[in-house]
Amino acid sequence: MKVKKGRIVVFVLLIVAIFATVATTTTQVWNNITKGLDLQGGFEVLYQAAPDEKNVNASIMSDAAAAIRKRVDVLGVNEPVITVEGENRVRVQLAGVNDQAKARDLLGKQAQLTFRDPDGKKILLKGTDLKEGSAKVDFDPDTNRPLVSMAVKDPSKFAEITKTYLGQPIPIYLDEEMLSNPVVQQIIPNGQATISGQESIEESQELADLLNSGSIPVKLEEVQSYAVDASLGADSLKDSLEAGLYALIAIFIFVIGYYRLPGVIAVVTLITYSYLVLLVFMLLDVTLTLPGIAALILGVGMAVDANIIMNERIKEEMRIGKSIPAAVKSGSKRSFLTIFDANITTIIAASVLFLYGTAAVKGFSVSLITGIIVSFIAAVGLSRLLMTLLVRSNILKSPGLFGVKEDEISDL
């Protein structure tokens, strides 16, 4: 048969494009991935509502979490993870915190919402003076702009305050951070007030949530906490990446030595898989943790498994006397359902881990599911494409290129 050089050229260009992309952009992709506190150092603490707090539920704890998030912003932490667990717990994970003592002190204090005089010094009202859950987003009937409505428990006290400070601002603080600076437009005798000046519905909703959280004084007690030093995180990351590199090298040596040409293609797909997983992590803003790296390496095993299944099917087809093109076509087809079933069952297991696992387990499951999907695309899609290009170029003549000896081929 005549060698089709065009397909060889496409094969070579595809390989060059893959390696060039990986070599030139991997560092940038890696640096843009959000790292968990176990990789870059940080602080984690689990809070629980104090036993003497009454009527605590998930909604109240959600309001408390909103107040905590506002405090976290003061620390300048990127991508904090603040989750409500059950009916009375809040878990806070802060990666990249430099001053952990400051973080502990800031998070440990009970949130204090206050309405102050124009100078911001004298406290006129506290969050406890607001009716619970009264703050909500509303709209100005004249301008249709968003505003926040609220109600106080003691209308006479509020009337006296608005009379004293008529035409002046009464700033609202959460701890020592100003949330809003509304101006008293009129005396309010009924305890029903509105706060205008927000630019969007989202901003109004955030203020309403903070007012509600401030009006529900939930005392939080620290249940457990741990800190990861930045240097320890860097060492963990270095050790994990080295372990992954050694595993990859061992896999590359095995698949090339045992499967020959299909092994070389498997190496290309594994490199592509690793790069694509990191790229997906960056694009989806996935927080990468040590369990996530473990899932990434496990995904390499899944990708190798898919390649091994396909290559073994191809070898079986050659041993019964089929030509290389026929064996590749039949073997690829026969292996597809096996690979698909294996990946689906693992995704189901990982989904259960995500639904019922802790934060670390969720991170592992997300990384595992992402890796499985990408490995399926790389192992089935890219491997088949590269193999098909070589087969149709008519340069593959010897079964030995697939690790099949001549005496293994049946004469039937």
Automatic annotation (TrEMBL):
Its main location: membrane. InterPro entries: SecD (IPR005791), SecD/SecF_arch_bac (IPR022813), SecD_1st (IPR048631), SecD_SecF_C (IPR048634), SecD_SecF_C_bact (IPR055344), SecDF_P1_head (IPR054384). One of its GO terms (molecular function) is protein-transporting ATPase activity. It comes from Polycladospora coralii. Keywords: Cell membrane, Membrane, Protein transport, Translocation, Transmembrane, Transmembrane helix, Transport. Residues 219-384 form the Protein export membrane protein SecD/SecF C-terminal domain. Belongs to the SecD/SecF family. SecD subfamily. Forms a complex with SecF. Part of the essential Sec protein translocation apparatus which comprises SecA, SecYEG and auxiliary proteins SecDF. Other proteins may also be involved. Residues 121-218 form the SecDF P1 head subdomain domain. Signal peptide: none annotated. This is Protein translocase subunit SecD. Part of the Sec protein translocase complex. Interacts with the SecYEG preprotein conducting channel. SecDF uses the proton motive force (PMF) to complete protein translocation after the ATP-dependent function of SecA. Residues 61-119 form the Protein translocase subunit SecDF P1 domain. It comes from the Bacteria. The chain crosses the membrane at residues 243-259, 264-284, 290-310, 336-357, 363-387.
